[in-house]
Amino acid sequence: MKISDQDLTRQDEDISSSEFGAEETKDMHDFGNWPEVAGLVFTLFAIWLTFAFTG
After folding, report:
1. CB neighbours of 24 closer than 8 A, spacing ≥ 6?
2. What are the pLDDT digits (tens) for 10-51?
3. Radius of gyration of the chain (CA)
4. What is the pLDDT of residue 2?
5. Cα atoms in the 13 Å half-sphere on the side-chain side of 29
6. Are the C-beta atoms of residues 50 and 42 closer than 8 Å to each other?
7. Residue 21: its pLDDT value, please?
8. Distances from the Cα of 39 to the Cαs of 16, 25, 35, 45, 49, in angstroms?
């Protein structure tokens, strides 16, 4: 399957919800919410480190 430039530049707003759901199902990637939670924990840890060592 050849991907055109138009496909690569499509934004989420340009895709219908059923088309988005079909892409997600085809992807077979279901990470759940843990990446967002891990990112939030890391961000809070980095902020804590900044204030802990700079006073």
Report:
1. 30
2. 666 677 888 878 877 887 777 788 899 999 999 999 999 999
3. 18
4. 66
5. 6
6. no
7. 80
8. 28, 24, 6, 10, 15
